[in-house]
Amino acid sequence: MTSVVAMNAILEKIASKDKDFRYMATSDLQGELAKDNFKTEGETEKKLCQAILQQLDDISGDISGMAVKWQVCLLFAEFGMQLLGLLVRKIADSRLQDISESLCKRVTNVSGKKTEQRDIASIGIKTVIAEITGTQAATLVYCTTPLLVDGLNKPGNLDVLSDTLDVTSDLLARFGNVMSGYHGQLKAAILPHLEEPRPVVRKRAIQCMASLALHLSDDLLDDVNKALISQLQQKNIKADAARTYVQTIGAVSRSIGYRFGKHLPATIPLVIKFSHDAVEGDDELREHCLQALEAFVQHSPHEARPNVHHIFDTALQFLNYDPNYADNMDEDEEEDEDMDEDDELSDEEYSDDEDVSWKVRRAAAKCLQAIIESYPDLLKDIYPKSATALIGRFKEREENVKSDIFQTFVELVKQIGATAERFEGSAGPTPIDQLRSDALYLDLQLLYGHYVSSALRTLKIGRAAGMKMFKMEVTALQVNHTRMGADVPSVIKAAVRQLKEKSVRTKQGVFAALQELVIVASDSIGAHTAQMMPGIQAALNDKSQNSSNLKIPALTFLRTALESTSPGVWQPHLPVLAPAVFATVGERYYKVTSQGLRVAERLIYVIRPQTQAQMPAGAVDIVNSLYQCVMSRLVAQDQDQEVKDCAISCMAAAVSQLGDALRPHLPQVLQARFPLASPILAPASPLTNRVLLERLRNEITRLTAVKAFASIAQSPLSLDLSPVMEPLLAELTGFLRKANRVLRQAALSAIEVLIASHGGSMQPSSLQAAVEEVAPLVNDTDLLIAALSLTLCTTLLQRQPQQSPLVTDRVLPPAMALSKSPLLQGTALASLQTFFQTLVASKAKNASFEALLSALLAAGHDKQVGKTAQHNIAQCIAVLCTAAGPSQTSTTVKSLLSAVEGNDEAASRLALFSLGEIGRCTDLSKFKQLQTVLTSSLGSSSEEVKAVASQALGGVAIGNLSTYLPFILKQIQSQAENPKQQYLLLRALNEVITSLTANTSLPERQQDEVTHLLFSSCETEEECRNVVAECLGHLALLYPSKTLPLLQQQSQVRGQDSSSDNPPAKRRRMAASGHMRTISVMAMKFTLVDGAQPVDAHLPQLMPDMLNHIQDQDRHVRKAAVQLLSTAAHNKPGLIMDHLPAVLPLLYQQTVLNPALVREVDLGPFKHKIDDGLELRKAAFECMDVLLERCKDRINVGQFITHLEQGLQDHYDVKMPCHLLLAKLAAAAPGPVLASLDKLVGPLEKTLTARLRGEPVKQEVDRNEDMIRSCLRAIEAVNHIPKVNTCAPFKQFMNRTVLTGTLAAKYTAIREERAEAEGTESMDTS
């Protein structure tokens, strides 16, 4: 603690008349304040503050400047930012008030003061505003705001007014939410200053108004916006005023986001009018207009949509605005490329310091980019014009504008690609892949270009539907399709011209544009590589000081182009391209070197696309150069890890793809192992392998080296790895003991590849060591590792059957244990089945069919083995029977039939599972008692046995449809009065239907019979109706032309009157019609599967009617329609995009609590309320979640948040998905969430502070804890919104509720979870 005596001595020196003493004392005091343990008492603190304020008037400029530093120290953040946090806690509010008032008075009333002193005071008060926080904010606002308002209302010195506006803007930006009591006064004080004559005052008034608008109430904000708009609507408005008010409107729109949306219908036409009516030379007004339009599109896209085409036309018009520079585009297009050097001079050499028209073009480019980003659904309309305009402006003479034009073009192409790939991710071929197989598609591709791919993939529809849609919409899409194909030559030509420019920044933009073009339209540049080659070569050979800034984007583009286009396109250019690429490998900058190595690796596949094909003529020299440059990097030690990894990968590709062409290098690298004259010349270099082996032993490069050896081993050239096989296998085996999961995966894959390719020459001891290490990995701790381990053992059994005793002894026991795991599924289960199948085929002594079958049956009979594990074991048994042959299968089936009839329930379940799985693969119709056994099992007293029997019956029927399907249908009809039994039989039928494919179709008679039976089963229990809907959906996938019309017809069935006065029979008929509609709509949901299907051609016509059922009278029908909308949005959003404006209001209605659906049940001592609409509301919010993810650009976020607010106050089951929805919305639309956050605080706080009634059971406590954690996750997501602290209610809620008590620890844990997840994700990405 600083002594009072020492502090008084310093203060005494500060009051000295000698300025040197004052300066030294000021320096000493600054040192004292910098100490962590600095403390002072109240009276000394008062003297200290007074002394500091006096220093502001010091005639010595040095001391005055240091006094400001004192202010910073005294008022530094109380949270301890830097050195003086302890002192801040000791400053009383009265001291803060004195300092703040004094500084404000010096800013707002400095009559007779020097400008420098006013500037110092302004910096001081702004520093105070920037540093304080917490409870001090209210004190600061209370003492400064009245003075600032008074200063704003005083006429006089414009410098004072400018500084006052500047300070007010800072105060509003930090504590505008605390100043709510002064908002009206501030609004009235700031608005008049928008008409001040000095531009600097107007500029600061605009800033101040934008900061204020963010915190205004709706009424005050409307007053401000109406005032601004009314000023623009005045006739004969002056140019300065027009510029100011347009700029203010743009700033306010950027500040408040979608809250400005309701004023856009009046504002947008005005702004567009001013942009067109601006007088010649008034480029500033045009720029402000375009910036305002950009703000409207970015921050209020939904409200701006009705005028987006007018905004788009305006942006396009001013993109070419260049009144001081005449240029004939037609002549440019026709001029010769081989122009003289004088003609190649860049347009950038034209300069005019007074010409600011480039600002208009830059604003137009940014506005156009905002439209492209905000309205991807309008690409069909805006692409043709925007692409032409942007390509035409590649010749822009102003470099800043040119960069924005390139970026806008990149965004345009990227949006086309993003729209095309928007809903990818399904397994198997995509619809566009199937479409490409059509000859008709090939014709369309030639005629209409790549965009037909994008359009059809956006809708994610099938081939037939695509062709039909194309024919229906050819008029609307023809221009767009034609343009995409026709624009590529124009883009290439314009880009090639720009590559001749001197500016590095311009060339970077060109390569970025070309790279995006290649990513989206991979086959677009194939015919133009010759045109681009001089520019690429010049970029790679650039010798300027900052050449890496050009080489990296050039190499990145080249790598993307080599990966995306046919190798034959690049082969003619190898003599020119290869030396330039290899030269970059020798660069000193590691980023250039690593990119050069990656491109060199891709060149390998250009040199020889097919490994077994003959080497192209003249490629030997290129291969030698490649080998030398890569080898120099491979053997070097002192280089970056990225370079080492790229060198290893490149050398592996060279050896595996070009191994036989490296023969000239072998004598010098093989002399240690082979005589020079030896005829034995292996196509791989032992030196190379020895270098790779050293890299394998290096902890930093071992993972890449493992993958390299796997690549070499897989080469079709049958490379000789015997010189390094034993040490290699030993190293890989050792990696299996490492904790690094990725390394273990790579090592397992590499060993498996080595065994597959060189297993016959491996030493038994090495294999034994590998098996010893693999065996412990066969467990359910990591199923991927287990699957790789089993695959390795399977390959070993196939390549060296004599190792089967070793595998049986070491791997079979853990494999049996794995078969009993309830976690076993997917790839691991398939690998286990293949392992058992191979083990039986190996005919090992202890792995015979009987032994394995006995072991599996024993595992399945274990009392601790659950139903899931028994099903997995049954699949393994079925695989064994298939591999063993008909004789063993027959014996096994007979024993299983006997087990079903036994008294052991576990044995019965396993036997039924096994019969079903065997029946899927084999016709079991010869076992006459099978039907009887399965039928009797359906009537078992055990529910689990009945369920398994149902599944088994379906599996058996798959093996012989002609025998068992009629039996199932007959049983369903006979059990019409027994819903539970009918449900089991319907499950069996569902097993059959879901297994059908185009190759195993039902006869037409059976199709009709099954369909009729399913529709007649609609009036049963709910569980039966769900199965019926699934069956009908799968039938529609297989036979759409027959099933879909029936579904549409049945979905229109309605009762005549829903009145409760109807007789019971009529009410039953009405209920039946509701069930029929529910099933019909639910069935449609099952037709919306990933990938192209025959049903896709029929869905566009049916979807509107089906979605219209969201307003059905029956809540079950409404729920089914909501789920249909959710599934369509997730799997095939193109089907519902155009219907969302009509459907969304209906969906939002389902989120509202309907009191009519809440009924009260009398339970004797108490009454219980049952909410029949709960599941419907939950489904509606889950659908909103999917729509936010898939169709965000079609959603009015303001309405979305309004209904989300209702959900946050609903039942537990509704709150949980709403919390997740809020978290996603905070990331997707932070602005609207921040604007509405004050309304969301109440529901969130109520959820966190709610207390369970009475004595809750453990289940209720757990549910409440889950809900609290879910709520905290949503709060944490909201807390990441920029400027969230400007919302006072949320900030107070955080301090009052979230960061106190037990919730603080839970919230900290949630934050740590998020940080860990983000860290893991970023690490994996890298």
Question: Topology of this protein?
Answer:
Blueprint: H1 4-14, H2 19-33, H3 42-55, H4 61-74, H5 85-90, H6 93-108, H7 115-131, H8 136-153, H9 158-175, H10 183-190, H11 199-213, H12 218-232, H13 239-256, H14 264-277, H15 283-299, H16 301-304, H17 308-319, H18 329-334, H19 357-374, H20 379-392, H21 399-420, H22 431-436, H23 439-448, H24 451-459, H25 463-472, H26 474-498, H27 504-520, H28 529-540, H29 548-564, H30 567-570, H31 574-585, H32 590-607, H33 620-635, H34 641-658, H35 666-670, H36 686-696, H37 702-713, H38 722-735, H39 741-758, H40 764-774, H41 783-799, H42 804-810, H43 812-819, H44 826-841, H45 849-861, H46 867-884, H47 886-900, H48 905-921, H49 929-938, H50 943-959, H51 961-974, H52 979-995, H53 1004-1016, H54 1022-1038, H55 1040-1051, H56 1064-1085, H57 1099-1107, H58 1115-1131, H59 1140-1149, E1 1158-1162, E2 1167-1171, H60 1174-1190, H61 1197-1207, H62 1212-1228, H63 1230-1235, H64 1237-1249, H65 1258-1279, H66 1288-1298, H67 1301-1325
Antiparallel strand pairs: 1-2
Helix pairs in contact: 1-2, 1-3, 2-4, 3-4, 3-6, 4-7, 6-7, 6-8, 7-9, 8-9, 9-11, 10-11, 11-13, 12-13, 13-15, 14-15, 15-19, 17-19, 17-20, 19-21, 20-21, 20-26, 21-24, 21-27, 23-26, 26-27, 27-29, 28-31, 29-32, 31-32, 31-33, 32-34, 33-34, 34-37, 36-37, 36-38, 37-39, 38-39, 38-40, 39-41, ...
